[in-house]
Amino acid sequence: MNNYIIHNAQYVVCVDEKNQILEGATIVIRNGLISQINPPQIPTGSEYEHFDAKEHLVMPGLVNTHAHLAMALLRGWAEGVNLDGFLELVWAAEGAIMDAPTCALGTELGAGEALLSGTTTVLDMYLHPEVTHQAAIGVGLRHVTGPIFFDFPGLDGMEWDDRIAFARSWPALHKALGGPWTPLFLMPHSVYTDSEAHLKEVAELAKEFGARIHLHLSETEAENSMSLKTHGRTPTQVILDAGILDVPTTYGHGVYLSEQDVRTTAKHGASVAHCPGSNLKLGNGIANIQAYQEAGIAVGLGTDSCSSSNDLDMWSVLRLTAQLFTFTHKPKDLDLSMIIRAATIEGARAIGLSEVVGSIEIGKEADLIAISLNALHLTPIHNVLALLVFAAGRSDVSDVWVSGERVVTTHRLTKIDPGELRRRILDRASALDSIR
Question: What is the spatial distance between Cα 42 and Cα 26, in angstroms, rounded to a whole number?
């Protein structure tokens, strides 16, 4: 099961502690794990499938640390607005169509888009996680999700007690659904949609289950101002007092963290999902990720939803992260390996998966991507990391493995029919015509 030999790779970007880049390399995958790298003798046997990686670069799959996959159905729905205007438009559209089957359908779309672009893991916050998880797994994605919490019933119609009851059922349900291994998560939406008392309940539940927490935090200056007015504290201080930071926590966005917030975040081992495309498109600002990294905070990269950033293309996020870094600092301060690591191993560390994926090392699960290097825009190659950050794109990703299973073969998804999915998507999206 899931046994592959990837040989003749022009480059293998390992993203290990030494940031090794191997040339003419071979990777052996056995039972979904990376078992050998450049073995002295290549295994033989009919149990192995072979992939000739000549004129290809092989690297770890990209890790998207903040997304709402099902919202791929609402691509381009809310344009020319700030976050408040965005939420108003999107919540109306969600109310019109986002029942459980539609959430599953949108997640299939988002998972397929992610995999075709080389993203193998997504931390996904959305309604009806029981069906979205199943849908994403069905496409082949390593899908990280969990119950979502609002003070109010929300689009799923769940009261607070129902949310707590569902969260209690989640560990068993998560295990039963299967798929590539992912940690347990609970997902209170934000400080402005969850009271401090309710945040304390979620924190206690997370401690009980050994779960991690993901929430939106300090995405805008207005959010921070509202928190100071309502609570007399920043959002980071609110979640600290609520006990959220007693468990591993990932902030969605984290654009406006004060110096004290940064120290608190680092002290408690919390992480940040940096979403520069969404942050800029909604006019939210630029996070100072260098300060976060210097404090020891794991910073991963994210796309946010297709409603706010319009796609799930992590390559554009890599490029924008690097460009913003040189704009806010100096070009000489840019470490290209830092950008690659944020999209892979640091993203995995941010969501509790760095022991499993994020680098090419023996014993890790084989979440790998192959990038075809024969395109004109990738010719010639003078600097491999610069090629990945500033030139490569999702159309260059030819093949993708998740836990050793080849889920994209020569630019085609292997587990679903994209044409059939597109027909279902267009049929369901037509229900929005009445409120356009």
Answer: 8
Please give the pLDDT value at position 190: 97
Rounded CA separation 262/260 (Å)? 5
Q: What are phi and psi of 124, to 5 degrees?
A: -115, 120
363's enclosing H/E stretch is none
Instruction: Dump pLDDT digits (tens) for 268-307.
Output: 999 999 999 999 999 999 999 999 999 999 999 999 998 8
The answer to whether the beta carbons of residues 49 and 405 sit under 8 Å apart is no
Question: Over the stretch 304-339, which tens digit does the pLDDT of each residue have?
Answer: 998 888 999 999 999 999 999 999 998 999 999 999
Which residues, listed in sequence order, are joined to residue 261 by a DSSP beta bridge? none
Give 19-83 as a DSSP string: --EEEEEEEEEETTEEEEES-SS---STT-EEEE-TTEEEEEPEEEEEE-GGGGGGTTSS-S--H
Measured between alpha carbons, how far is 63 from 365 in angstroms, rounded to an integer? 14
CA dist., res. 42 & res. 135, Å (int): 36
Interatomic CA distance for residues 166 and 399, integer angstroms: 37
Q: What is the dihedral angle through the alpha carbons of 187, 192, 195, 198, rounded to the nearest 10 degrees?
A: 0
Distance, in Å, from the CA atom of 231 to the CA atom of 233, rounded to the nearest integer, reads 5
Is residue 380 reached through a cis peptide bond, with omega within 30 degrees of 0 on the bond before it? Answer: yes
Backbone angles phi, psi at 81, to 5 degrees: -135, 160
Q: Mind listing the domains of the chain with CATH numbers?
A: 4-60+364-413 (2.30.40.10), 62-350 (3.20.20.140)
Q: How many C-beta atoms lie closer than 10 Å to residue 418's C-beta?
A: 15
| 333-347 per-residue burial string, b: 16 or more CB within 10 A, e: under 16 | ebebebbbbbbbbbb
**What is the C-alpha to C-alpha distance for residues 236 and 249, in angstroms, rounded to an integer?**
11
User: What does the alpha-carbon distance between residue 56 and residue 118 come to, in Å, rounded to a whole number?
Assistant: 14
